[in-house]
Amino acid sequence: MDLCHPEPAELSSGETEELQRIKWHRKQLLEDIQKLKDEIADVFAQIDCFESAEESRMAQKEKELCTGRKKFNMDPAKGIQYFIEHKLLTPDIQDIARFLYKGEGLNKTAIGTYLGERDPINLQVLQAFVDCHEFANLNLVQALRFREGASDLGFGG
Question: Which residues form the SEC7 domain (predicted)?
């Protein structure tokens, strides 16, 4: 007699019913496990899709940033307009000033040209740009030399 797999004749009717219930529950559990595996596979497929779409969006944004920098370096006003139109920059004076202050990929002469315009918006951006600089605890010479290449902006010697 095999205790793990007894012959049906060796089982009482109650034991046979219990064995059938156990087999039925086992089958249900295996089906549930397979459903969970399928759902997990679907989730992983959706994640892969999402990551691909996100990478595509990031590549597109980087391309737009590159185009905007080129436009800015050729014509600062048109470059700022491009950044705003493509939602890479808000039209807020402070945002524009911070963007110019960071100057990532922007020509310093083009920044100086933009800030040197006498348009009221440009003057407000200039004021906000100056406010971005921290001159506290610097003597006059240090403050004038504070930003490397400040003379390249067209503001001095």
Answer: 54-145
